[in-house]
Amino acid sequence: MTKKRQLGKFYALMTLALIVLLGTCFSGHAFAQKEEDELEAFSYVDPEEMLAPVNSEDYVPTTLDNLSKLYWALAQLDINNDEAIDYYLMINECDLYTQFYFNDLDWHNIREASRREIFRRLPEFKRTFDVLIPLELGRYNTEKEYFEVEPESMIDSKTRFQIETSRYDAAICGYDREIPNYPRNLELVVSRPFSLRKVPVSRDLADEYLKMVSLKYEGIGQTRRLRYYTRMAYMRVKFSVMSYRGMSRGNTGGLMASVFGRIDGLEFYADEEKKFLLHEEDRRNY
Description:
By secondary structure, this protein is α+β, with helices and mostly antiparallel strands. The protein contains 8 helices and 9 strands. Strands 1, 2, 3, 4, 5, 6, 7, 8 and 9 form a 9-stranded mixed β-sheet that branches. Strand 2 (128-141) and strand 3 (146-149) form a beta hairpin. The chain is elongated.
């Protein structure tokens, strides 16, 4: 964790700890009656009405902390449910959760402060995500200027995509089971079948890419080179989530949130660090 992020976490913890010590804003009822009425009504708000305008490049990784916010944005969690708030804090504020969860009085104040904060930030929670998928490229077509996609990486008219970013039993803040109502992975369902058989790349970029790949095999014997030579690339898929469909089980047995969405764009890189862009497509109008 960078020094900047550590300081940010420290100040956040200090702010919430101050709320705990003062305890004045949350004595008696957790909310004023007007705010309680708004929270009760939240479960019935159309998720589309909660969606704020999003910059086309503002896509976040498909991680559990970001998915936890998505489920709130899609109105799949009840703001009045204490367990939903507690698990949200476990996912997003592990240090705070670990320090205060077993002190019932302190935790009550933190929970109520967090309930307010979640409600306040609902319009900010992202519904636009990205995922980086490794691809193996084949031969380059010099006439039509594209790389073939190897059969193992080819995608043929798919409408469902399982995005598994972590094992369902990987420990989250010491919790190594499925987290109720917070699936760790996503199934994206799109209306138009998606296929990937080739990647358009200009001749100049293709030449630079092939030279870069060759550098990785310098000093390797010809026999081993022929055996292990591969052309790896990375496809960044940018997508928007429109609505929640339900839950399903993924290929590894873990619980997945099934959502309906749209593929907004594709970016193809020569490197996992996403520094060498080979090709990009805007697919929002497909």
